[in-house]
Amino acid sequence: MKAIVRSAKKSDLSSLEDLYTQCMGEFEYTFYKTNFRSYISSHRDLIKVSEEPSGIISGFVLVYISNPQKARIQAMFVSANYRNRGNGTKLLGAIEKEILTNYPKLRYLSIRIPEEYFLFQSFFLNQNFEIIAKINGYVKNNLDFPYSVNKNFFIRNARESDLEGILRIEKACFSTYWQMSKVKFQQIMKNPSEVLFVAFWEGKIVGYNFNAVSQINQSGNYIRIATLPDLQQKRIATSLTAHAFKWFRAHKIDRIVLSTYANSPVHNNMYKKWGFIKNDQEVILARKYY
Ligand SMILES: CC(C)(COP(=O)(O)OP(=O)(O)OC[C@H]1O[C@@H](n2cnc3c(N)ncnc32)[C@H](O)[C@@H]1OP(=O)(O)O)[C@@H](O)C(=O)NCCC(=O)NCCS
Predict the structure, then answer these.
(1) Whose CA is nearest to atom 20 of ligand 1?
(2) Weakest mean pLDDT among 34-48, 126-140, 171-185
(3) How many CA atoms lie within 13 A of 17 on its CB side?
(4) Ligand 1 center to 223 CA (angstroms)
(5) CA 273 to centroid of ligand 1, rounded, Å
(6) Closest protein CA for atom 10 of ligand 1
(7) 224 Cα nearest atom in ligand 1
(8) Whose CA is closest to 144, among 272, 266, 246?
């Protein structure tokens, strides 16, 4: 007899918590325990479970929708004893159907696979996912930033009226997969745990930087930096980052994490020069719909 795949129920909570920690090692940054519980109770349709004929929950997939065009598989796991029986394929099929029904404009269903699970990339590649990027994770355990800045650029917190300039940079600097929406930038400006800085030159926005802090694990997340292509290598990113470090220091965090394209010497050298140390790797895979 084969497992059935269905949306999560309230009674699945302890099985899901158990499977999640087996998969991730522990509750972490995006899904610490309380957050995970409330996500499960409010988004049951975005969590599919495989239930064996014995009643055991053998696997799950949990999706997070960051915008109507982008869904992210936050975690997916099938217990070792129940692998190679089609459970993963069924879970993926069920969650895809759910998302496409509710978000017909979906463009990407993605997953970030950490180093310890690289072996399982082939499962997703066989399911029509393709590699979007290889990523290096970096950490810096102090908040020093003694690098010289370019004072010709004026930097301040972003405002609603800056959105057009920010979106111009977004289009010029990032491929469609990475581009953030206007709504996302508006949300960042309203969130006290996040910050968006903009750099100006001759009244025009020429760069931006986006960061977040997590009080739960005392860490800062340096999320985005971008400079208009014509004005790169004039220390705009360095100046924005010096500003970001002041903000991080004010939030009294212990460490800063970031991730960047693994194959770009420019990015990796820049972060190493700023005292970041490479600590992990991951691969982003996505199934595309358009
Ligand atoms: C990465 C990026 C933000 C750098 O911005 P920038 O304003 O040019 O950066 P800076 O002028 O402050 O340069 C920082 C350091 O990187 C070096 N650098 C930047 N671009 C470089 C390039 N194309 N080639 C070689 N070195 C480069 C600079 O020389 C400088 O090093 P130094 O202090 O030893 O001189 C910019 O290239 C960019 O916007 N790229 C597209 C978006 C992106 O990839 N963002 C990061 C991913 S989240």
Answers:
(1) 233
(2) 34-48
(3) 12
(4) 15
(5) 11
(6) 235
(7) 48
(8) 246
Ligand 1 atom 1: residue of nearest CA: 267
Give the structural domain span for 157: 142-253
User: Is 263 inside a domain boundary?
Assistant: no
Residue 23's pLDDT is what? 84
Ligand 1 pocket residue status of 235, Cβ below 6 Å: yes
- Nearest alpha carbon, ligand 1 atom 31: 270
Residue whose Cα lies nearest atom 15 of ligand 1: it is: 270
Cα separation of 17 and 117, whole Å? 19
The mean pLDDT value for 133-138 works out to: 97
CB of 242 shorter than 6 A to ligand 1: no
The tokens describing 145, both together, are 């930033």
Does residue 26 carry a pLDDT above 90? Answer: no
- Share of residues in the chain with pLDDT > 90 (%): 86
Using a 6 Å cutoff on CB, does residue 47 contact ligand 1?
A: no
| pLDDT, the chain, mean | 94
Q: Are 115 and 281 in contact (CB under 8 A)?
A: yes
Number of domains in the chain: 2
Bridge partners of 9?
Answer: none
Is residue 260 in some structural domain? no
Measured in Å, how far apart are the chain's first and last C-alpha atoms? 37
Structure tokens at 188: 């960042």
- The answer to whether position 47 is within a domain reads yes
Looking at the domain assignment, is residue 114 inside a domain? no
Sequence-distant (≥ 6) Cβ neighbours of residue 108 within 8 angstroms: 69, 70, 71, 177, 286, 287, 288, 289
Whole-structure pTM value: 0.91
3 state DSSP class of 58 = strand
131 touches ligand 1 (CB under 6 Å): no
Place of tokens 């990339």: 121
Place of tokens 């292509």: 229
